[in-house]
Amino acid sequence: MRQHLDEELxxxxxxxxxxxxxxxxxxxxxxxxxxxxxxxxxxxxHETLGKSLDLIIPQNLRGRHWEGYHRVMETGEARYVRWLxxxxxxxxxxxxxxxxxxxxLLRDADGAPEGVAAIMRDVTQRWKEQKALREQLAxxxx
Length: 142
What we know:
By secondary structure, the chain is an alpha+beta fold. It has a single domain, classed as Beta-Lactamase. It is built from 5 helices and 5 strands. Strands 2-1-5-4-3 form a 5-stranded antiparallel sheet. The chain is globular, with a radius of gyration of 17 Å.
């Protein structure tokens, strides 16, 4: 049996996490932005709350993102709930970073989707190192 955690303890966990923890409602409007998200993306919470996820989605990927997001909100089915996703994202300064993240589809009391929480980690440095190794390997083979 799970022990009930009080709201203050949950808030401390979310705020203390080094990973970005973001919640967006059915329309993709940011409603939660923790300190980890501030560190990774460069935006303070007050700059993001009430704004679209477009703040962190590269322009060329927005169409595909929103198509999938709206489909999840309509159907209540998300293929990626149990998988780790890897995607590029944008920081406040316009630079691109590489993220790995998982999502939690949150539902209201009637079971309808009310939004998505994402737990994200910046893996840009690891991605760059792996790319350099692949290039070195290709040069050795060629």
